Amino acid sequence: MTIGIYPGSFDPVTLGHLDIIKRSSKIVDRLIIGVLNNSAKKPMFSARERVHMLELVVKDIQNATVEPFDGLTVEFAKSRNATVMFRGLRAVTDFEYEIQIAQTNHALSPDIDTVFLTTSVQYSYLSSSIVKEVASYEGNITKFVPESILPLVMEKIKKVRSV
Ligand code: ADP
Fold first, then answer.
1. CA distance 6 to 100
2. 78/93: higher pLDDT
3. Sheet holding 30-36, edge to edge
4. Residue 94 to residues 22, 84, 99, 116, 129, Cα–Cα distance (Å)
5. Where are the alpha helices (DSSP H) in 28-82?
6. Phi/psi at 125 (5° precision)
7. CA pair distance 85, 7, nearest whole angstrom
8. Cα(122) to centroid of ligand 1, in Å?
9. Model confidence at 16: pLDDT above 70
10. Is the minimum distance from the CB of 87 to ligand 1 under 6 angstroms?
11. Catalytic (active site) residue 50
12. Could you tell me which of 150, 145, 116, 117 has the C-alpha nearest to residue 131?
């Protein structure tokens, strides 16, 4: 059985992430979406909120589960017996950063390979930061995030703005 992980911040999960999740879940027998609980990144949504949103989004993908993790991604992968790590590539700008991480991870743990999936063109501009930016100005984010999490994102943005 091939186990893959798809790690990220998912602050919040976007349709671009969901596209990568759907495609990678077809490549491995089991896909674990790892939600990075890294306080240095100062996420808008807590790890619990991000896990909850992802759970709503992947509920119909039978072989996908969601888990928070902290520490090194390769250690998380190893602890789950994963041999493949998925990352999405949007543009050349992603490449430089991603290749550095992939090579570091390979040096740390040669048994785990990073597989890059290129973004579907309709999501190539999409990022969690863009979603937060548009939502903070009350823009319409229905084209950016899965429908099931829309109310949660809007509610959070309202809360943050009222502080
Ligand atoms: P990180 O903080 O680890 O970069 P993100 O949540 O921003 O986490 O992204 C997780 C992964 O999803 C990364 O590999 C990123 O390149 C990829 N990704 C993000 N947005 C998109 C998108 N629109 N299309 C394809 N891949 C994406």
1. 17
2. 78
3. 64-69, 30-36, 3-8, 84-89, 113-118
4. 20, 19, 9, 11, 14
5. 47-57, 73-79
6. -95, -5
7. 8
8. 14
9. yes
10. yes
11. no
12. 145
41 noted as active-site residue: yes
> What's phi and psi for 140, nearest 5 deg?
-85, 120
Binning pLDDT at 50, 70 and 90, where does residue 161 land?
confident
17 CA → ligand 1 middle, Å: 6
Contacts of 117 (CB under 8 A, 6+ apart): 20, 23, 24, 86, 87, 88, 89
- Residue 126's pLDDT is 96
Does an H or E element contain 4, and which?
Answer: strand 3-8
Out of 26, 39, 41, 162, pick the active-site residue.
Answer: 41
Whether 163 shows a pLDDT value over 90: the answer reads no
Q: Which residue do the tokens 């790892």 mark? A: 34
**Max alpha carbon distance in the chain (Å)?**
48
Distance 19 CA to ligand 1 centre (A): 11
Q: Which residue among 23, 30, 90, 106 is the active-site one?
A: 90
- Residue 25: burial class (beta carbons within 10 Å; 0-12, 13-18, 19+): buried
Given this model, what pLDDT does residue 153 score? Answer: 95
CA distances to 31, 57, 89, 92 from 95, in Å: 23, 27, 7, 5
41 has a pLDDT exceeding 90: no
